[in-house]
Amino acid sequence: MYCGARLAQSDLVTEAAETPAAPDADAYAAALEELSGCIRNYRGFHKRVTKTDYVPAFDEYEAGCRAAVVRLDAGLAGVPFYRTNQPRWEAQHTLMTLAPLYEITGDDRYYRAFENLWQSIVRFDRNNFGGFGTGEGAEGKPFTGGSETCNTVAWMAWTTEYLKLSRNPAAADELELSNFNAAWGSLIGDVWYTYMNVMSGERILAPDILGPAGFEGGTEMSCCQTNGARGISQVAEWAVLTGDGSLYLNYYGPCDAQAQTPGGSRLGIRQKTAYPAQGRIAITLSLDQPERFPLHLRTPGWSEKTAL
After folding, report:
1. Fewest CB atoms within 10 A around its CB: which of 28, 49, 211, 292?
2. Angle CA(203)–CA(206)–CA(207) in degrees, nearest 5?
3. Residue 46's pLDDT is what?
4. Contact (Cβ atoms closer than 8 angstroms) between residue 80 and residue 120
């Protein structure tokens, strides 16, 4: 999704100007050419995918390039994600660039738009098993169909960026819900992933559904099959965070993990627990050298009674 991120950053920087300027024709053409390569690599593998071959995707992303102001203004106006001009799951990776734009510029508009759009998914498009959207995008009615594995991987990536930026424990709650249910639930056996997660629990191997879109000798390399492992492994990106001289423990579950203290020393974190099946968690910290720092332990939003 690197090319999508570049498009979003270019467009949103233009939006930050007092008088939005029209996209530069040459830059726009170059962006579409790069996007063409992105879609060709992602969708076509060995095939040559052109604008003629894949009109819907190009039309969608061209509209996003020409009307990028809709994305930022929609977030500021409280318009939910499913009503924006790019409600597919891929657009979540693009909108993640609002976070670094806020960090770089300090412009509060980027943060507010980022947060509002994120919260709209929790409200309108997050399934009860932690998956995102319906089918392959957002429709504002998550209980009418299944959620593609790629949807959830993108949703978890976006939520991880929001957690890093905000330190809002509600984001860690969302990641926990997605991790233990949608992410692990998409794994069938030891190798295969499902294309669609549904509330009934029915799961069909991604290659069985998406195999025809692959290439000879590699039909198993579908988007969901290759993305599925990322959903599970993303826990390493949000389990423990540091910032403002503090350490935040977001993930609960049996583990032996290593992290850095705010001072830069090695920190060992061992959790002995049967969580989430049981609520008791024993946490042991080991330091290479003594150091004082605040340790924030998340209280799950669903917990009615938590004791330390």
Report:
1. 292
2. 135
3. 32
4. yes
CA–CA dist 177, 159 (Å, integer): 12
* Paired tokens of 6: 């570049």
What pLDDT does residue 164 have? Answer: 95
Q: Is the Cβ–Cβ distance between 179 and 253 less than 8 Å?
A: no
The 10s digit of each residue's pLDDT in 255-307 is 999 999 999 999 999 999 999 999 999 999 999 999 999 999 999 999 998 89
Specify whether the backbone of 125 is left (phi greater than 0), alpha (psi in -120 to 50) or beta.
alpha
Under DSSP, the state recorded for 178 is I
Closest-CA residue to 222 (of 188, 195, 204): 195
Using CA atoms, how far apart are residues 297 and 303, in angstroms rounded to an integer? 13
Amino acid at 62: E
CB of 251 closer than 8 Å to CB of 238: yes
pTM: 0.77
Instruction: Tell me the per-residue pLDDT of 169-199, one tens digit each, with 9 for 90 and over.
Output: 999 999 999 999 999 999 998 888 888 888 8
Cβ neighbours of residue 243 closer than 8 Å, sequence gap 6 or more: 164, 167
Amino acid at 265: S
Q: Are 231 and 182 in contact (CB under 8 A)?
A: yes
Q: Any alpha helices (H) in the chain, and if so which ranges? A: 2-16, 25-39, 55-66, 69-77, 90-95, 98-105, 108-124, 149-166, 169-177, 184-185, 206-210, 223-233, 235-238
Residue 145 contacts residue 134 (beta carbons within 8 Å): yes
Q: Which residue has the tokens 């990322």?
A: 230
Q: How far apart are CA 215 and CA 211, in angstroms?
A: 8
Q: Could you tell me the CA-to-CA distances from 216 to 54, 196, 240, 269 in Å, in that order? A: 20, 23, 41, 45
